[in-house]
Each structure stands twice: as C-alpha cells, then as structure tokens.
Amino acid sequence: MTRLFLVVVLSGAIAFQTMAHNAKIATYTLRDTGAGWFIEMNFAQAAVDAQMLKMHDKEVLSKMNKDDYKKSFLKYLTENIHLRVDGKKIKFVSGGILLGSHQTDVKYILPEISGHPQNMSVYLPMFEHIYNQTNLFRIYRGGDKFSKFFLSTDNDFSANLKFTGQGIISVNKAPSNNLALISGVVVLLFLVLVAVVLIKNRLKNAQLGKA
Length: 211
Fold this sequence. Notes:
By secondary structure, this protein is α+β, with helices and mostly antiparallel strands. It is built from five helices and eleven strands, in the order αββαααβββββββββα. It is 35% helix and 29% strand.
C-alpha cells in the first residue's frame, strides 16, 4: 500500500509552483490526503547549485554524476528539515527527487503523522546562508485554503503550530535576537554610567559652592 501510494505521489504533477524560480524562496507543502500525509518541496535550481557548491569543491562537483548529486543534496535536506508532530520526530525515508533546469522537486511520504495531529513544530534552516532567504511552509487539508507560514531569520526559520477547530495557528514566541538584546544592555549600562557621572559632578559642585 505504501509503495503504491509512493508511486502515485511521485508520478503526479506538482502544482502550486508559484515563486519556485525565485532563488530566495523555497516552498514546503505538507498535504493531508485523507489516506496519509506527504510533503512536496520546490527549490530554485540556482539555490540548490549554490548550496552544493558550498558543500563541495568545484572540481569535485564537476565530476559528480547525477545520482551522487541527488544523494548529496538529499542528505543536506534531511539534515536541515526538522518536523516534530505531537512530540514525535518525523523521519524522511520514503521519497524521491526530480532535478530540473530551473527547479528541483522533492517529495516524501510521511506515514508517522497521524490523521488528527494536535501540535507541530517546524525548523527549516535550509539555504540559511542566502541573504533574505524565506522558506514558505504550507499545510493543505482539503478545500481551497492553505495555511501558510513564512520562515526566515526573523523567526529563526522555525514555527510552533497548533491544530484547532478554527484552523492551524502559530503559537510562536517572539523570536530571540541576541544582538538586539546585547545592544540594549550596553546602551542601558552606558546611560547608567552617564547618570552616575552627572550626579557625582553635581554633588561635587554643590560642595564647592558651600565652601
């Protein structure tokens, strides 16, 4: 049954490829078919090639055959896509990849996701080295509506999601920004130091005036 489902999924045409050729936007669409879940991912070929060049020496990459190229990219992908549903880490095992001249498409069947998930956490640091990279994570459960979540450096490429009767909502905390926090502390300490110096000078001047 799983093998038949895999053949159907991988042989079907991939829809919803808007923005796919934009190297700074990758889409990840998690679909509930009613009989099981699968995820389809669309990447601009330029982004894939740039990542592969980052991982491999140019000469090594030029000698790499198509199968090894696919294996290397899938290894990178499975190490950088983290999905946890109701506390369970989801494994990416049964899938396939299609390289194109402008776009690379990947699909995986995810039998470990139950028919009625309650909570989901997503962490997708894919292509994080690309300036202004956005990973668009979407969930489709029938009808004509997608739940969309934009993952970027603004939210550490992560989202915590909750499935409710009104839809899927993000329950993310405000993203941490260590640089902003450190800057704020430095500014605060500087202001405190200035205040202390001013107070000491005023006290000193007051004492001199009395003398």
